[in-house]
Amino acid sequence: MAYATLNFYPNKDPRMRFFALWYFCTLLIIWTILGDTVLGFEQSYAQPIVGVLTACVVAFLLEGLDAWVNNRQARFAGSWKNTVNFLPPCIIPGLACAMLIYPNERLTPIIFAAALSLASKVLIRAPIGNGQTQHVFNPSNLGITVTLFLLPAAGLAPPYQFTENLTGFWHWVIPGIILATGTFVHAKFTGRVPLVTAWFLGFAAQALIRSMVFHSPLAVPFLPMTSAGFILFSLYMIPDPATTPIKPLRQVLFGLSVATIYALLFVTHVVYGLFIALAFTSAIRGLSLYVNAQFKRKPASKPVARAQQQPQVAIAGD
Fold first, then answer.
1. For the chain, first and last CA: distance in Å?
2. How far is CA 28 from CA 45, 53, 54, 137, 176, in A?
3. Digit-coded pLDDT (tens) for 178-206
4. For the chain, which residues make up each domain, given as ranges?
5. Global model pTM greater than 0.85
6. What is 4-164+174-294's CATH number?
């Protein structure tokens, strides 16, 4: 069954999509287990479980409803492989919302964020040509961003939790592993290296400019780039293949736009700047896709009026 998302993978190869999805899914599962047992994640065991269950229930319900309305086979039906390959896009937002939101002991913010993440894939879409539409926002990013603003009692998970219980050399090993493996996946399977590179360079440029303008120590604005959480966000949330351009130049513009908007939010003292910057950039891209589709739409052809035939006149003798 064809996925519109394949339009944003190199050569529209479904194997690349499944590998990238399963890689990230496996990474989040392992990181969640290690985080709750070794690294020092400040979440209960129930939160990632509830996040994943909520995401799966919402995804299966919405896909089943959409398939029924459009008289087609659900993407998770037909074989056990279809069912299994339907799971990673559910597991990823469920674990990401539980990992990045800190709701204290409550489960409601996680449930809300996970449900919104999956619902956004159905509710907020833009045309991409050939009668197809594609969701605009990174599901996890949108769910987390909206939750942080609508439920102010919840906040972001503390950045130190990703390596809280590690010491010395290991503080660099974990981010290094994430950086190396993530770069490999984007180079080999998603084609998003231009976007990631532009984002890193854009973030470094805005950090340098802020240091010069506000006369702060040079290391201060660069400090976020050393954290595992920042690298996770940079390699697995910003360059989401399903919600970013595939052409290299447009990828560069996308990455630089996120960095620029983040800098503007930071200097105006807006919190959660990384998440808002990505959501805002995605919204601009979605709007441009919609406007572009309107311009490309051909005007309806007017029916050509048939020329009226002159009545034949009978001539005597014919």
1. 68
2. 14, 15, 17, 20, 16
3. 888 889 999 999 999 999 999 999 999 99
4. 4-164+174-294
5. yes
6. 1.10.3430
